[in-house]
Design goal:
flat; Endo/exonu/phosph_ase_sf; Endonuclease/exonuclease/phosphatase domain-containing protein
Length: 352
């Protein structure tokens, strides 16, 4: 039974169930129009349609996420912090909530303003990074400011594989050099001429606060990768490498009240093996069977047939050509890919 009033309509439970069963078998009253978009006309939208393959995202950022600790060059966060001691909370927050900072291989801080009173374990960020620092000492001739601190990601290179190359502190210059012993990546703040003479095959990366200095004037073969202003309208923080387009510099917010913007350096460098196409060539694959077959062919050869020639050059050419033909007939061939500058070759298909 149902009760109808002028203000509202009430139904019993059985009536609602019957209405539901009746409505599920009704055809839709709205007739589709062929002029509608295909997305609306499709009845089972998203269910019967084939799933599109997920496209691989490109770009230097996505490439760095895919191989955060296996990139050809290390990712670097460079910042003039102007006292690192009171920026630790900001640094911990960035490492916790920003994946790029957490996976960054090197954190390079200038103007750390640290002194021997502050121990290294007080600024060490759990077990993620190892701390290497050079504080401004009293014997340097300058009491205020200064200091360099480098934090190395242990997932990229642990503490046992980092060697300190040089330390120097003066009123106008602070030099601090580090080298991972297991790889060709280096971060150096030392005399470049001496370093390049000792480590000619090493990837040189020079980062820091250069103020008005221009390192490219002294070393023309270096490239500067920071192209935007880092303090007001001036570019004071630089990054130099011997490779063109090896880094993409991205501006990040400064730490605390520092007036220098933080710089995130994303590696763009590609190895020569990936930049240059390999060259395919065929080589002979020598086995015990092929050597024995060649020896039998040489023993059965009629060498007197080649002797009538009186010219030594013609005789030598005939002998070499005959032996080369025997080698091609008895030895299997293999197709290899040879990379430019690589000592090793990668085997391909073998034709027996």
């Amino acid at each position: 039974p149902s009760l109808y009033t002028t203000t509202h309509i009430s139904y019993s439970g059985d009536a609602l169930i019957s209405l539901n069963l009746h409505s599920t078998h009704l055809k839709p009253s709205l007739t589709p129009d062929p002029r509608w978009p295909t997305e609306i006309l499709r009845e089972n939208k998203g269910h019967d349609a084939r799933k599109r393959p997920q496209e691989k995202q490109t770009g230097v950022r996505n490439r760095l996420r895919a191989r955060a600790h296996r990139a050809p060059l290390p990712s670097i966060l460079l910042a003039n912090v102007q006292s690192l001691d009171n920026k630790l909370d900001d640094l911990r927050a960035r490492i916790k909530f920003q994946r790029g900072t957490q996976d960054c291989n090197l954190l390079c801080f200038t103007e750390s303003w640290l002194n021997p009173v502050v121990p290294s374990h007080a600024i060490q960020l759990a077990k993620l990074f190892s701390v290497y620092r050079l504080d401004r000492m009293a014997d340097s001739g300058k009491l205020r400011g200064g200091g360099v601190c480098v934090m190395v990601n242990n997932s990229w290179c642990n503490n046992a594989n980092v060697v300190t190359l040089a330390r120097s502190c003066s009123p106008n210059l602070e030099l601090f050099g580090l080298k991972p012993t297991w790889t060709l990546h280096c971060v150096n703040f030392m005399r470049l001429s001496q370093f390049q003479a000792q480590h000619q095959d090493t990837a040189l990366i020079v980062v820091g606060d250069f103020n008005s200095a221009d390192l490219k004037r002294a070393v023309p073969n270096l490239y500067q990768h920071v192209t935007f202003p880092t303090r007001r309208n001036k570019t004071l923080d630089h990054c130099y490498t011997p490779y063109k387009d090896s880094y993409k510099a991205v501006a990040h917010p400064p730490f605390g009240k520092s007036d220098h913007a933080a710089i995130f350096l994303i590696p763009k460098y590609k190895q020569r093996l990936k930049r240059e196409a390999p060259v395919q060539r065929e080589i002979a694959c020598w086995t015990d069977q092929s050597v024995a077959a060649l020896q039998d062919a040489l023993d059965d050869a009629d060498w007197d047939m080649l002797r009538p020639s009186t010219d030594v050059s013609e005789f030598t050419e005939a002998i070499v050509g005959f032996i080369g033909k025997l080698v091609e007939e008895t030895s299997p061939r293999a197709t290899i890919k040879k990379f430019d500058g690589a000592a090793k070759s990668r085997s391909g298909t073998t034709n027996l």
